[in-house]
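User: Quick sanity check before I run a bigger batch. Here is a single chain. Can you write out its predicted 3D structure?
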Amino acid sequence: MRREHPAPPAAAPARPVASMDAYEGVFDGATRPIAPADACRSFPLGPVERRRASPGRFDGAVRIQPGWERPVHSRYVDPLELIWLSAARRLGLVVRRDDSIFSMTDGAGLLALGPRCDLDPDDTLAQMVFHELCHWITNGLDSYGERDWGFPLDDPDDLREYACQRMQAALADDFGLRRFFGPTGMFREYYDQIPADPFAPMDASPREAWICADGRRAYADALGEPWGDALRAALGATQQFHRLVRPFLGDYQTEVPDDALPSLWAADAPR
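Assistant: Done. Predicted structure follows.
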């Protein structure tokens, strides 16, 4: 049976309220908030609203105890993060945040990433996990047991970094996600210059020839075990989300004031 609320008093004229965010009224336990300056009308509460508003016990089927706090039984996780955290775990890696570093592996299954506040607006956990997996593949299966995939700390221009980016671009291309999965940091400049053929050299130097050849080798390794199935599953799921989100981009508006950046989901054309 439909339950009707009593009609509001005829003598009380309706006055619109633009927002309740700054509203400073009080609850009397039986009516809607009463404004100090009559900012809105006072309406009788229905039974559900009464339960929400009452600060203590009331006569009815439900009892609300003063000081009660809602129990939390689960945690919301961004679906894309869940996918890539699962991919990392499937491959034997546990991801943790560490305020003291940007990224690091300990050679025993830990992949540590810096805090979210250190990331750029277009950085994601998915992108960072994918990039680290590409490092592992490029540097070889045994690099799992080495700190930072075996990269020496005193060589900022290790050519394997660029081979990794070539392979990363090729894997992302297979799912139409090259721009979405671009790496962060200073190496992004090289990544953005990779041609449509991810293994085509940008010049005739022996350096570029080695980078492209090693990137192609790493790409072939990525398709096999132990990485292939986990990568295809995570990249495929990301592609599905990309397709699902695209129709909503036309009406999207960020909740961040004065933010003119478009959504990262608009970075690649759908495939």
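Confidence is low (pLDDT under 50) at residues 1-9, 11-43.

User: Great, the batch can go ahead then.
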